[in-house]
Amino acid sequence: MNKKIQGYVDQLFDGYQESQQLHELKEEIMANLLARIEESVANGKTEEEAFQLAIKELGDISEVAEEISLNKKYEVIDEMFNRKPLEKKFAFGYTVATGILLFGMIVSLGLYFQKGELFLAVSSLFPFAVVSISAFVFLGLVQETSHQYGMKPIRAIFYTLAAALLSGGVFISFIAYLEKMGLKGRIDSLQDILAFHNEPLFLALAVLMPFVLPAICLLIFLGLTEKDRTKPSVFTSYNSSHHTDTKEMMVYGNLSGAIWIFSVGIFIALGFLWTWKISWIVFIFAVGFQVLLEAYFSNKRKSHT
Amino acid sequence: MKGKISSDLLRGHTDTIVLGILKNSDSYGYEISKIITEKSEGQYELKEATLYSSFRRLEKDGYITSYWGDETQGGRRKYYKVTSAGETLYLRNKADWEFTQNIINKLL
């Protein structure tokens, strides 16, 4: 029955430009039609009779549809000339999430410098990071942007759960590793680490698995059942023209992939061969190269158009 | 013909009728249309589409606000809630109507 109602409502608004408002109106109409049908069925009508009755009661929705599509046009014009500022609740949410993350970082750095224990620092960062990452994921998905509709909160909660599981798992396994290694902030020499490296690493992986596996299953399920939330608007087509050169995009993707793979390689090599204290600087260079690459390609794209 | 005219007259008061129902408790489209049918003892059946237009008008002008219910099956319901501006409008429209009714009664 749900499918039938959905099909009917979709067909009612066929030809009107999709927008967040229309999307919500459709959802509202569907829920009301369903409530009406369920009641008629409970009163002894057949499903088909109930359905026919319900759509008769619905009447002519063209007035509302017309108004919404006009609104959509205004919205497009509005967006063309002045970008809407972020909704207050989102701005608040992002600020709080950033605050939590920063607070966690400060606490963890403070602990690290005071006690000199990496284990303690990571453990104290863990709850803050997981909370703020989850908040960012949730807010980012639910928020309506100029190109996409917001996701339904229930669905976004599942994504958030997956993200929390993943980030939590990585943290916990890292903490377990550090604990087992007994690393107190000093990573002295390659020999030391290699000497009793295997067991903690195995433990870390074993701890990681129960978090990562359900998270991945959840993500696969969500990914497979995902609906396209892209807005069909003037802007999407305008923006996508930037990316029409697929070959260029591929080169860009490959180059940036290479930058990061190389830098991870250099990071590990430098760390083992020399010292971990300095090797991370590689990533700063990687970010720099990435920015340069982006600048080069966006410049090139602009000169094309 | 008589039915048609009276329903046109009634339609002009849709917004006030909706506000009056929401004043008692938050509600959603189907429930509101059911209440209207019940209250008018089946003599007036508002088309749902008319309600949607009314909701949009009222919400745009800040007389009602909406929120999604947390139904898990068969789609979320959109609930409406009257604001204090809405309650004021309701009382004013009601007073206007009583005034008009009084005069029409005298004139017709």
Q: What is the tally of helical segments of chain A?
A: 13
State the total count of DSSP E strands of chain B: 3
- Number of distinct beta strands of chain A: 0
* CATH topology-level fold name of chain B: Arc Repressor Mutant, subunit A
Computed CA radius of gyration of chain B, to the nearest angstrom: 15 Å
H and E string of chain B: HHEHHEEH
Name the chain pair with the biggest interface and residue counts per chain.
Answer: A-B, 25 and 20 residues
How would you describe this protein?
- With 305 residues, chain A is mostly helical.
- Chain A has 13 helices and no strands.
- Chain A folds into three domains: 2-81, no CATH class; 88-232, no CATH class; 244-305.
- The longest helix of chain A is centred in the middle third of the chain and has 29 residues, at 153-181.
- The model of chain A is unreliable at 234-243 (pLDDT under 50).
- With 108 residues, chain B is mainly alpha-helical.
- The longest helix of chain B is centred in the last third of the chain and has 24 residues, at 84-107.
- The A-B interface holds A 2, 24-25, 27-36, 38, 57-61, 63-64, 67-68, 152, 154 and B 28-31, 33, 45, 47-50, 52-53, 56, 71-72, 74-78.
